[in-house]
Amino acid sequence: MAEIGPLSFETSFSSGALTESSSNTASFSSTPPTTLSPDSMSLASDPDVPKHGSIVTPLLDAAIPLLEDAQKAQIQQMERDFDRKAPHTSPPAESQEPNDQSSRHTPVANAIVVEPLPEEPPFAGRARRARASLPVYNLAKLSGTRPYTKRVANGEPVDSKRRRTIASDTPATGSNETANGDTNVRPKASEPAQGGIDAMGLDLPAAAVAPSSPATPNRARRIIKKPKSVKLIIKSTKSTKSTPAPAASITRRATRLSGEPVASLTSKMTALGKRGRKTIERGLDRMTHELRRLQDTNEFAHIDTRPVRYTVWSNGKYIDPDASEEEAAATPPRKKARTSESATAAQPGKEPEIDAEKKETTGPVPKKRRVKKWLDKGLYSGQDTPVDVFQNLNAQDKKKLASLPELIRPVKPNKTLPSPMYNGLRMLMNGRDFKLPFDICSPLPPGQPKPAHYRTMTKNRFVGDASAYWKKTPHFGDFASKCVCKPEDGCAEDCQNRIMLYECDETNCNVGKAHCQNRAFQNLQERTKTGGRYRVGVEVVKTSDRGYGVRSNRCFEPNQIIMEYTGEIITEEECDRRMNEVYKDNECYYLMSFDQNMIIDATTGSIARFVNHSCSPNCRMIKWIVSGQPRMALFAGDRPIMTGEELTYDYNFDPFSAKNVQKCLCGSPNCRGVLGPKPKEVKPPKPPKETKKSVKGTIKAGKRKLKEMLASGDEKEPEKPTKKVKLVIKKAKKPSPSSAGLKAAKGAAKSAVKGATVIIKRSVASVSTNTKLALSSSTKKPTTKKAAATKKSITTIKKSITTDKEAPRVKRKYVKKNTPRVKVSSRSSSLTTIVAAGPASEKKKTAGPGKKTPKTKKMTPASSAKSTPKKSATPPSSVKVASGRKRTPSWKVLNSASPDSEMAAGDAVSAKNTPSSAKSRKTLDMARSDKIWAVDDDDE
Ligand SMILES: C[S@@+](CC[C@H](N)C(=O)[O-])C[C@H]1O[C@@H](n2cnc3c(N)ncnc32)[C@H](O)[C@@H]1O
């Protein structure tokens, strides 16, 4: 405190006893004042002077005795000086007014001026102590940090008395601000006040200062014993200005200078004073409690627990070790553009983006043309485009290439990067097999239109007499096929069962399931038994013009089985009845000739019934013998089927009546225009004698040889059978009036006549009459001269055959035109049996299986057309479609002679419809014809 200059304090006492006249000037600093009013000292020391207990502070009480001796000495010295200077002549003023000391002792600077306190507002009543009743929130308790164990600080149990200790400044203010508002003179907390009072006059006597703990040297603890209410205003004077202040607190203003009311310490002290001691102590306890809690923290003790780090600097930049490498990488180093940006940023009012744009527009930056570097060396270098692509190609390949213009060399060949495909031209033309790595399935989204009143049936079901009739007929039993394949063959194309359209099973297969490839229906069952649209692979779609249809939602390999055609197996009588009674108002019929002159009615059946007709189909409907039972299924054609393709097969539809001819809407280039029979392909005529002999001999031999071969397991191919036939000349009748169907049928008839072929017609007894009539009607009125010429030469060979004693007789009719040659070259001929509807006037009755049907007057030429020989190469359709739109109730099953049905009905041998090689086809043909004629032989 020695540095502090003489201070002049104006201390005002609120005592009413002290008036302005009694104010004294006294030095309150440690430096003895030059002048001191003796009155003040006397006032303080004079016990007679009434003291106002409430206003005499203990500070002054403590200060006055200390200053008393020095001040007395000073006063005495001053008096001596005064006496020495003053003339002795003049009477001393004090003699006149002994009480007026102020006139004798002029106030001097650096003296304490005790001023009266400003007037307090009138006492409004009892001091409010409502705060004492307010709830006290224990922050530690609320925050969950309140300790429940005995507190330990610095490894030692904390004494409960320490709760009364506080650190640093006075609890009243809680700040570093001194009473005079000036922090410049802030004493060090660790220093005890010299003589118990420092220059601030606020600190406590030295005796009251607690020794600081050695562990916490920076913590000065003072025990506040009895804070008393003190109304003390200490004003700083000029001396404060001369006080050297620390640089850190230069900016702070003295409260007095700012003009603000000095309320920091005094008001709070006053507030404290108004409260009771208990309240204050309680508050202090609370404060100390929190502070005590804090003092145990490292932050309070200024203990830095963080490890010492050595900073890394690189290129003048601080490298933050906490920053991850990704962050460092994410913030790329500043580029040069930044410099321009910063330069522009330094110029006010300029935006860097605008500047950059300006630079782009203004600055003539020449664009560098990018030159693409082509690969002229490497894998395909040196493979020049052939000058002549046709070079070294044979005629066939040249023709192929001409049809593929995209393979022909372009006008300007790319020499830089020649395509290697030039060297693979031949391979490209021939193509190569490949397999997709996965199957494709794209089912239609849900919500597709569904056909109404449609009930599914996944297995054939016999209805009515069909079952009894079926059992009565010992079909297939007499000619069970037996596979003679080896495991390495795998029952492929050459499998005898396959050729005969017998599916292999445990009873007839030589290689076993593991190696056998001739188990289409079993595979289908395996595929579809768990369900799922992909496994089924087909879905019903609504076509724009043909009602419902079926499309694939997956790929199918060539000849792969797609789905089975199932329904109710009914007799012809039942079919008659349904057509006349049940389906008389239907637009579509789902009837197909099946086997043993029975019919599958798929009105309740599988969705195969929705498959539409096409003149260029991608599927075939084929009947197989599976475990001794005939079953019909849709198979893919010779080419694979892609996802989304509509599935079609050739109905080979034969409308019973011209009125029922429907326009074909398949849209294929070779569309026949109507839902009619396939065009008949004719064979060159042969001499009748030779043919007759040949046929007879071949068939006889073929039947026996085939039996022998199958029995002995001989793999030798059977010889072509010959057949002895009877030719019955049938008179041709006049055709029905012209119509669309008639015209279509006429075309077929013409082609048959033109070819001057022998028409071989076979039929079961029940439909032989129909066939006969059809043939008669078709030849009744030849439309051409050639037909007329052949009219006389038509011979009908009628032959009754039976498969065995119990089986019904099967009649075969062979109509020979022009040439006596009678031979069926291939079973694959499309002699389709068609179930069609006719007008009411044409109503006929069917006699059921094995019975003749009544004669029909009106027959379409199509009937005759269907009896024309078929091309062997053409895949046969063993399907008899019974379908048509809005037909009249009267209808007739025109089960014309169909090799397909006949073979199934009369015999056990059927030929494979889908041979994938010419060899198979040949074998198939032989087997088929052998079978046909063999039946006749037996019959004979
Ligand atoms: C067995 S149903 C086929 C499913 C039929 N589309 C349906 O909606 O139920 C045969 C009938 O379909 C129609 N149809 C099938 N293929 C056709 C085609 N290519 N052109 C015109 N109509 C066809 C004919 O009405 C035919 O009588």
UniProtKB/TrEMBL annotation:
InterPro entries the UniProt entry points to: AWS_dom, Post-SET_dom, SET2_Histone-Lys_MeTrsfase, SET_dom, SET_dom_sf
Alphabetical UniProt keywords: Chromosome, Methyltransferase, Nucleus, S-adenosyl-L-methionine, Transferase
Highest rank taxon of the organism: Eukaryota
Record-linked SUPFAM superfamilies: SET domain
Every AWS domain range: 478-525
Compositional bias ranges of the Polar residues kind: 92-105, 167-183
Subcellular location: Chromosome; Nucleus
Residue ranges with Low complexity bias: 18-43, 769-800, 859-878
UniProt KW Nucleus keyword: yes
GO cellular component annotations of the record: chromosome; nucleus
Main location: nucleus
Pfam families xrefs: AWS (PF17907), SET (PF00856)
Basic and acidic residues: bias regions: 350-361, 678-693
Biological processes annotated in GO: methylation
A GO MF label: histone methyltransferase activity
Ranges of compositional bias, category Basic residues: 810-820
Region of interest (Disordered), ranges: 1-54, 71-108, 147-192, 323-370, 675-699, 769-924
Positions of the Post-SET domain: 660-676
SET domain mapped to chain residues: 536-652
Protein name: Histone-lysine N-methyltransferase ASH1L
Organism classification: Eukaryota, Fungi, Dikarya, Ascomycota, Pezizomycotina
